[in-house]
Amino acid sequence: MIPGEEFLCEFCEKPQLRRMERMAFRQWSDKGYLHCQVTMMVGICNDCKALSLDPGADRIFDEAFQREYENRP
Q: 25 pairs with which residues across the strands?
């Protein structure tokens, strides 16, 4: 999908735009909490403010976690 391309919200079916967003999260592991950051395409509805992620978002989160896990002693 092209950044800035219009699509319909999954909840209210009104137009919304997707854009690249930087997101930070932390996740528990056997090495303690790992702080991760990703940049990914996010949809934000102009009307209901719902967030939506692309179907491949889980893979992006998993890869960021794995990178941080491997870098932690």
A: 36
